Amino acid sequence: MRLSNKLKIFSAMVLMLVIVVSSSMVFAADPNTWTTKAPMATARYNHEAVVLNGQIYAIGGQTTGAATLKSVEQYDPATDKWITKAPMTYAKHAHQVVVINGKIYTIGGLGDVSGCMYSLEEYNPETDTWKTKASMSTARGHFGATVVNGKIYAMGGSSVKSMEEYDPANNIWVTKASMSVDRMLFKVAVVNGKIYAIGGYNSTGYLNSVEEYDPATDKWTPKAPMNIGRSAFEIAVLSGKIYVMAGANTRSTEVSESVEVYDPTTDTWTTKASMPTPIAGKAVTLNGKIYMVGAGTGRNIVEEYDPATDKWTYDAPLTTGRAYDQSVVANGKIYHIGGSITNSVEEYTPTNTGGSSEGGNENPPVITGNSAILELTMVNGVIKEYDLNAAELDSFLTWYDNSSEGSAPSYYIFNKKNNIKPFLSRKEYIAYSKIASFEVKEYAE
């Protein structure tokens, strides 16, 4: 991602530092549109999509006639081309995909062969090869998985409350402490190195329970429950807080538009502004905002949420509505991929600060400087500042993007410029898990 594009992510915050916007401002119509890109070779839904080294990978899923896929395709945004890659060993959907150290791992899932539910496969993009790795001890579908400190954690699934930890260095799964309840169709979030299992469904009904797992102690701790039990919902993590949106339960009208946010520091849930149009699509985060892509009965509505103002905004709609699709962020753009049943792909570039839920946005100024102050707010409240040039800032932003996906080192090294003899150099190591938020302040020209 080029520096100029990355700095746009922070333009709204920089704008707040230099001007005051009148509450009576009338917002212009959103000038942005979704652009149709090259389609995939295979129509797919219930698939997974990840970003690695700026490339998008669409993995598995289902296609016409509900046939399950083992195929994999790679999209290059720079050339607008899809390339068919080596297939997985197992055809699967309802699986999980994570990225560690430049490799993609597919875990468990449902398919035509029962063995896929135990399976772990590793993909090396440099050699375009899949390797079958050690299997889990428990079959899992519609489960949760995440990465902490370079290890994979797989938990839950249909009638399952157990958890396992995978170490890629030793190709070993280790059974860890189980959750207090079995859950499926739930969500997993990581904040400050802790894992949160949220909501879901089991034989007792829709769950509002929340549990926190500490890998250092191998213990689950019950946390404050959500206000509403829900499954198959969407989730986003911003500034150390967890946002949950929409989902399903027996009171569909109550849950389908609702939004709650969890603060791990206070162990509290707060109800936020409801989505203007219910029925959720797929949530992604960009520019410090949440985008719900593919909402509404036609599944083509795009809604943008600004945590700073607790307001939702309508953005340009998708050209093609679809369900059971995927959205990812790559190079500062949102890509909406596949769905029931289509191979189409659309691209969106947010360049706005948001407006009212009646629709419309205002474009912010573009930051064009070559130097800036990077201000980090740590989870303990300490604020650190670094005076960086364009290349240094670009390096940090690239590391931060990749670390959020688990594909970069867990810490970043800042070279201290005010080196004092007799040291050859002075370096400061900042852990990704210790950063609560950050802000870029551009120098005036």
From TrEMBL:
Region forming the signal peptide: 1-28
Pfam families associated with the record: Kelch_1, Kelch_KLHDC2_KLHL20_DRC7
Domain of life the protein comes from: Bacteria
InterPro entries documented for this protein: Kelch-typ_b-propeller, Kelch_1
Gene3D superfamilies reported in the protein's UniProt record: Kelch-type beta propeller
PANTHER family listed in its UniProt record: KELCH REPEAT SUPERFAMILY PROTEIN, OS02G0202900 PROTEIN
Protein name: Kelch repeat protein
